[in-house]
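Protocol step 4 of 6: structure prediction from sequence.
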Amino acid sequence: MLPTLRIVILAGCAAALAAAASTPLIRLERSLDAMGTTYTIAAYGPDRFQMESVIDEAFAEVERLDQLLSNYRPDSEWSRVNRDAPQRPVAVSEELYNLLDRCLAYSRASEGAFDITVGPLMKLWGFYRGQGRVPRRFEIRTALGRIGYQHIQLDPARRTVRFLKPVEMDPGGIGKGYAVDRMVDILRARGLASAIVSAGRSSIYGIGAPPNEPRGWRITIPHPRAPRQSVAEYYLKDHSMSTSGTAEKFFAIGRRTYSHIMDPRTGQPATGMLQVSVLAPKTIDSEAWTKPYFVLGRQWAARHKPRDFTVFLCEDRSEIQCVSLP
């Protein structure tokens, strides 16, 4: 399992504040399983019923996105595109079109290290079935012929998607981050000023700050090989953090460990890195960029990351080296 980010919320902090405030604050936490992960919202506010209503609305949005983006539901819009786009241009909703356009922008900016068509490689290496295997070279060459973001053609005038070759899109690299951002938009629009939203504890957004900590929501990053130890801590205040690491999914043969984080350009699991965390204003960005920075390494990340990003990397060396790129 991935050493998950630890969200530190001190018990009783709302009660301490309430003693000095005219309106006591209530802490409410709820979770929902959807899109292959667990979404959790912890919020502070004076009105329990209002908070419950807003959280219900945010979770309803996640369920709507599951219907839109799932590649396991044959009736989802995402599945319809995968099924029909190799044969003809497929008209899609404005929301899905904009999301795919953003994915292609990530691919171009990352020199192909981010690619939503990487699914055939994941299947080939056994990560979808949970039974890892090292494929032969000809199998990798065959799989590489079936992936490539360059084969996704978007027509903005007609708002259609067409595959120039038979590829298959997988929303796994952006779905959680997009869902968290949509939940945050709803919570903010309905007046929640203090909340933290997480998707599987690997993609997180902090709205405002908890009552006891004006710096924001304290998040600790566990050591990639000793999850009870922390290697860094950050405070999220109207900011996001996402993490990807080798411990999330992997298999070992002999003395070699193979991670699920694939380099779409080579068809091989990426090497040289153990864990990457990205802090960014939007969760879709922090989630999307964890894997390219993992694949391309510290020097590339330092040269190319936006100024409002912070990247925390743990490199796979004889002695693990973790470094923050502010």
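Step 5 (inspection) to follow. Residues 69-173 form a domain with the T-fold fold (CATH 1.10.3980.10).
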